[in-house]
Specification:
Layout: E1 10-14, H1 18-21, E2 32-36, E3 39-43, H2 45-49, H3 58-64, E4 69-72, H4 75-89, E5 96-99, E6 103-107, H5 118-132, E7 137-141, H6 144-153, H7 170-178, H8 184-188, H9 192-199, H10 201-211, E8 227-237, H11 244-261, E9 263-274, E10 277-290, H12 293-304, E11 313-320, E12 324-325, H13 349-366, E13 372-376, E14 386-390, E15 410-421, E16 424-426, E17 430-442, E18 449-458, E19 462-468, E20 474-479
Parallel strand pairs: 2-4
Antiparallel strand pairs: 1-6, 1-7, 2-3, 5-6, 8-11, 9-10, 9-11, 9-12, 13-14, 15-16, 15-20, 16-17, 17-18, 18-19, 19-20
Helix pairs in contact: 9-10, 11-12, 12-13
Length: 481
């Protein structure tokens, strides 16, 4: 066959133990098996060493290992985990496709220079998967199907692949064996016309895509990030304080994901579930987008302490769906010294982080609505010209048109009546009018005000904001800082 579509380099990650590893991400010395209809279909190496075999009944497996842990196969959970692993693999290339039930296809041709060779990519993938608690066989080839075959067989020489290792139907394998065909080389020596008449056009299509004679387009995952990770406990957790370690592990995975994708988050959710009870969730809301694992753990512990209605847990899930790009402050030649800025001050980044940390702790203890910020409201009346907003909404400030009229930082809850003394405004002494009037006539649909505002000064106590109403009466409304 003439290879026309072999310009790319594909790396396949085949998760052969995925049905087991979705339940046993933590290393365990107990035999674990996964079954369907009371028959064993997958197992870990401990169960294999105990003499349990694929196809055995669950009862027979319990006889061989009394401490056996059995899970019913969950294909939906396998696919969801595969999607999460595809999001994790996005850090190596944006061209990641999912090949159910247990494989990922990565087009790494454009990533070789970035990671300085295929060896580094493989090493990083193996190390990353080991931290996550998964294992995968890696196959490298010039077409997606060839990479899949290499991953499943561990053989990089494609032509030596036995026909029973190809991704074809069993009746085709049996027919080839009856013809004395046992390897891919033997298949390719036969005329395509005869193979098509005997086994159908789909078999020829597979061979052409396998060998690169025909294009094999892949559907890549969306670039929109999404994070979800779950830990299943082999025995029920009855003390919620014991969840701190798995919470720390999930948060470490989340932060590694954020760093790899150069993202931050301001909200994430934990889900505590048990097969016999309704799930219980709690969320963490941050004042500003962060990627700090220590901060995430502190806030999660504070929320965990509030939970007293969960008696037992058998799985813990962490998810995050809203992400923000990472922004960094660029330093200058004197970054980190007292000469960093023109006026000799050092950066206020540490102060900002401390204030955000305080807000986060307060919100975790008191609730997401306990801390709020202030923003301008669309109203000209001073007592209605501001409103409270959530702390997260403060990052979405709208530009305000410039206003030359001064406004005080402090308004009295209720304007205070002023009196005149010898023709002068009087408040703990005579007041001298410096600026005004500014007419505010507004609110006919609600309650109307018609006032002339002035800025007045006291000789010793500072500046005040006063107004005169339609009845020519004077009032103190605000104090300038």
């Amino acid at each position: 066959m003439k290879q026309k579509y072999c310009k790319d380099l594909w790396l396949c990650l085949h998760f052969q133990q995925l049905p087991v590893e979705i339940f046993t991400r933590e290393q365990t010395e107990k035999p674990v098996v996964v079954g369907m209809k009371q028959r064993i279909v997958h197992m870990n190496h401990v169960a294999s060493e105990a003499g349990i075999r694929i196809g055995s009944s669950v009862d027979a497996a319990y006889i061989l290992a009394s401490n056996l842990i059995y899970f019913e196969r969950n294909e939906e959970k396998e696919l969801e985990t595969l999607k999460n692993l595809a999001q994790w693999a996005y850090q190596f290339t944006p061209n990641v496709s999912i090949r159910a039930p247990a494989s990922l296809q990565l087009d790494i041709n454009s990533s070789l220079k970035l990671f300085d060779g295929i060896g580094n990519i493989k090493t990083k993938i193996h190390q990353g998967l080991e931290r996550l608690g998964y294992s995968a066989a890696l196959g490298l080839h010039q077409t997606p199907l060839a990479a899949l075959v290499a991953a499943k067989t561990g053989n990089s020489v494609l032509l030596e692949t036995p026909v029973n290792e190809l991704d074809i139907e069993q009746h085709i394998i049996d027919g080839l064996h009856r013809m004395g065909i046992h390897s891919l080389t033997d298949v390719l020596d036969l005329p395509q016309g005869g193979l098509a008449r005997r086994f159908g056009a789909s078999f020829i299509d597979y061979l052409q895509r396998l060998m690169g004679e025909k294009a094999d387009p892949q559907q890549f995952i969306s670039e929109q990030p999404k994070f979800s990770s779950e830990i299943t406990f082999l025995s029920d957790v009855t003390n919620l304080e014991s969840l701190v370690f798995p919470i720390r592990r999930l948060l470490k995975e989340l932060c590694d994901f954020l760093i790899a994708r150069q993202l931050k988050i301001n909200h994430f959710t934990f889900r505590l579930a048990h097969r016999g009870h309704s799930p219980r969730s709690f969320s963490i809301h941050l004042a500003e987008p962060e990627s700090d694992a220590a901060m995430f753990l502190l806030l999660s512990q504070l929320q965990l302490e509030k939970i007293n209605d969960v008696q037992e847990v058998d799985s813990l899930t962490l998810s995050a769906n809203r992400f923000f790009p990472t922004t960094s402050l660029s330093g200058d030649l004197f970054h980190g010294t007292r000469f960093q800025q023109k006026d000799g001050r050092t950066t206020s980044l540490a102060d900002l982080e401390n204030s955000n940390r305080l807000f986060n702790v307060l919100r975790a203890r008191l609730g997401p609505d306990a801390c709020f910020g202030l923003a301008e409201a669309n109203d000209h009346r001073p007592e209605k010209a501001w409103k409270t907003v959530s702390q997260n909404a403060q990052g979405k400030r709208q530009e305000v048109s410039s206003n030359e009229n001064a406004r005080p930082m402090f308004l009295l809850p209720k304007p205070r009546r002023l009196r005149l003394h010898d023709g002068h405004l009087w408040f703990n002494g005579a007041l001298q009018v410096l600026q005004g009037p500014e007419r505010i006539d507004y609110g006919w649909w609600d309650y109307n005000i018609c006032r002339d505002y002035f800025v007045a000064r006291h000789s010793t106590s500072g500046l005040y904001w006063v107004f005169q109403d339609q009845r020519q009466q004077w009032f103190l409304h605000g104090i300038f800082s």
